[in-house]
Amino acid sequence: MTTLLWLRDDLRLTDHEALSASSDDARAHDGCVVALWIREQLPDSAEPGLGARPLGARPLGAASRWWTHRSLAELAPRLAELGIPLLFTRGDPREIVPRVAHALGASTVRWSRRYAPGARALDAMVKSAVLQSGIRAHSHPGALLVEPWLVSTASGGHYSVFTPFHRAAAAVPTGPLRAVPSLLPEPDAAIRDAMARLAADRVTCSLDELGLLDHSPPWWRDTVEQHWCPGELAALERLDRTNTWLGSYATSRDLPADPDSTSRLSPHLRSGEISPRTLLLAAQGRSLPSKDVTAWVRQLYWREFCWHLTYHVPNLRHRPLRQRFEDFPYQESPELLRAWQRGHTGIDLVDAGMLELWHTGWMHNRVRMVTASLLTKNMLQPWWLGEQWFWDTLVDADEANNPVQWQWVAGCGADAAPYFRVFNPDLQARRHDPDNRYIGRWLSLREPGGITPVVDLAESRRAALEAYEIIRD
């Protein structure tokens, strides 16, 4: 008996419930496991306009595609060492998953759950197609600490404020870690022949033929690759250094110049190279100051909160949670947006952050808030344009965190920053980069010469407050 393991954002061996269950299938029935990763391409999955609700997961941005390519390259030989071949393909999972399962003679298909509305809808269609073909289909948890339906308010609804959500979610037991499966029997000759036919028929392809690296900026090889090593092994190595970055997290997490001020595990978590349960138990198991552990674990639950909202509230990527913000008088300007994207606003901390993003695929969280605030409040540019830029350039771009965080800064989301809270980049720089190390490092990559600020911070703040008065409750 063969089990087909459909991988998505769960590119790891440790604490992988769908993988563990697939392994149990193989051992119980003297069978094998074949893994499959699909670059999803749906007829109706073109990038939608404002208000659209597409089917399927959000297409990966350029930085996430770069990361995923290298993560898959790291995972494939490690799966092979367990006796599990990894197949690649691109197209519509509604057609591909049943076809591959049937070709392999699979009795069961397993996968890890997804929670965004478009991905959930697609997975339900795939499950129906698999079941109709007479093959069992099972989904498993693994991307979150708490399934979104396991916590609710006293009235039975979803949470829209973080603190009570955190309290309820933290009370839900997480369960034990799943061990890495032991060596499985390799596919027999019949399964190998079936895989060869799938390749000959162009149903499956090589990793390079997925095209994940197509259209990536050519200089990323000399920039982003210097800063990151995708894959589960690198994530576990970073986790082994927990004491380095967690030991002073509560006080140092807002210092962007310090490379160990945060965990830098977010891109590994985003691609599923490490599970949130692994991170939670590792943090709680360290003999470190409770204030540091508590502060960092709170960030894990903020991620849970973002997914809780994404599960329960349709279309957060396009529509503000606070509906009155649909009438906010943004003053869309391609020129201002471009200056912000290039790090040419003339506001040093913002420009340093945008240059860090472009050269590394990442930005310190404190600086993310400041750059987003300048764009949406001082520059009065629509929050969804900044969200799209981050989606395309962040290696940790997350389908829930990214839009929820942008709405938080813009003041239009759940538990949002008050409309009158406008980050002052100069004050933030003096407070969090007092010796100018962060700003100096990244601005040194810009062409020499001063840049006139695109906005006056004081005047633009006043203009923003006047605009917010229009939609104020």
UniProtKB/TrEMBL annotation:
Alphabetized SUPFAM superfamilies for the sequence: Cryptochrome/photolyase FAD-binding domain, Cryptochrome/photolyase, N-terminal domain
Region listing for Disordered, in residue ranges: 250-270
All residue ranges annotated as the Photolyase/cryptochrome alpha/beta domain in the record: 1-145
Transmembrane stretches, start-end: none
Binding annotation for FAD: 249, 262-266, 296, 396-398
A GO term, aspect molecular function: deoxyribodipyrimidine photo-lyase activity
Keyword Metal-binding attached: no
PROSITE patterns: PHR_CRY_ALPHA_BETA
InterPro entries hit by this protein: Crypto/Photolyase_FAD-like_sf, Crypto/Photolyase_N_sf, Cryptochr/Photolyase_FAD-bd, Cryptochrome/DNA_photolyase_1, DNA_photolyase_N, Rossmann-like_a/b/a_fold
Cofactor(s) in the UniProt record: FAD
Cofactor note: Binds 1 FAD per subunit.
Keywords annotated in UniProt: Chromophore, FAD, Flavoprotein, Lyase
Entry keyword annotation includes Flavoprotein: yes
Biological process per Gene Ontology, one example term: response to light stimulus
Entry's family note: Belongs to the DNA photolyase family.
Protein name: Deoxyribodipyrimidine photo-lyase
Species in which this protein is naturally found: Arachnia propionica
Organism placement in taxonomy: Bacteria, Bacillati, Actinomycetota, Actinomycetes, Propionibacteriales
